[in-house]
Every structure is written in C-alpha cells, then in structure tokens.
Specification:
The chain has eight helices and two strands, in the order αααββααααα. It has 166 residues and is mostly helical. The two termini are 21 Å apart.
C-alpha cells in the first residue's frame, strides 16, 4: 500500500499527541463550533464533511511539508475549503444549484467570518474546485489542496461503494 493511501487511512484516526505539528496548524480552527458543525453534513456518501476537510488538510499538510511549502497555510485553507452549511444534494432549494461552481465562494465568505486569512489561504479556499472552475490556483499549496480534495473525494466515494465505512 502506498504512502498516500496510508496517510489517507491515518486521517480517520489522528491522534493530537502523535500528529502534534499538524494540529498546531489547525488548533484554533478545528474546535470552533462553525467548523465542528460540519460533522452534521454528509459529504461523499458515508463520510461527513468534517472528516472530509480533516483528511484533505492532513494530506495537504504532509505534501506541503515534504515539498518545503507553507504546510500551515495549506492545512488551514484545507480545513476551511468546504465551510458551507447546507446539504448540496437537496433538491428543495434552488440556491444549491451549480454547487460545484458556487460553494468555494460560500466557503470563503464563511471562513472570513471566523478567521483572519492570508491571501494564500483565501486562494486555497476559492480555487479548490479547479479545474471544474475556470481560474486555476495561484500557488503551489492551492494546487496541492485542490488535488488532495479530489483524491479524498474519490476515495470516499469508492470506499463507500465497496462498503468499507460500514
């Protein structure tokens, strides 16, 4: 099993004492009620949104650390990249239409209400849906978070179909 797959699996049972450096990057965010409430929303089949953003943040942290990039900003931007408070699958609300294109803006608006963000963190949140959205990420860290998001979403969907979360 590859390092990426192992890191993804580890993201489901992170220990603050073992992954201390990762949690130092996100500690001021992860315990906020505005972030914790994400556990109430299903993200991809059997995975809630809080677990999804935690997995994306952890993989982004590891990749950026290895590449000597801003792993703290990548972790923080990744924790906030899906900070929206609705079920995007709901058919009863037209505001959810075009979710894939619109939710990065919603997430950025919500993130600005709870945290002071750097330009890098804002770009991570706003551009994480590239290439679905036309404008590409500006920074390497933004690209890494975008790719980590795609990887985690794919694993979540495939694992759910295979019954691995049950």
């Amino acid at each position: 099993m590859g390092n990426l797959s192992n890191a993804y699996k580890r993201s489901f049972s992170l220990d603050k004492n073992i992954e201390e450096e990762f949690f130092q990057c996100i500690d001021d965010l992860i315990n906020l009620k505005e972030v914790q409430i994400l556990a109430q929303y299903e993200q991809h089949v059997d995975v809630d949104r809080l677990q999804h953003v935690l997995s994306v943040a952890y993989l982004s942290f590891l990749a950026c650390k290895k590449l000597d990039l801003s792993y703290k900003s990548a972790s923080r931007g990744a924790i906030l990249h899906d900070l929206f408070y609705y079920d995007w699958r709901s058919k009863d609300d037209n505001s959810h239409r075009l979710h894939g294109y619109r939710h990065p803006g919603f997430a950025l608006q919500n993130a600005r209400k709870i945290a002071s963000l750097s330009k890098l963190e804002e770009n991570i949140i706003k551009r994480h849906m590239w290439p679905l959205t036309v404008i590409p990420p500006r920074y390497a860290e933004s690209f890494i978070v975008s790719m980590a998001d795609k990887y985690c979403a794919t694993r979540e969907i495939l694992n759910s179909f295979a019954g691995k979360y049950k």
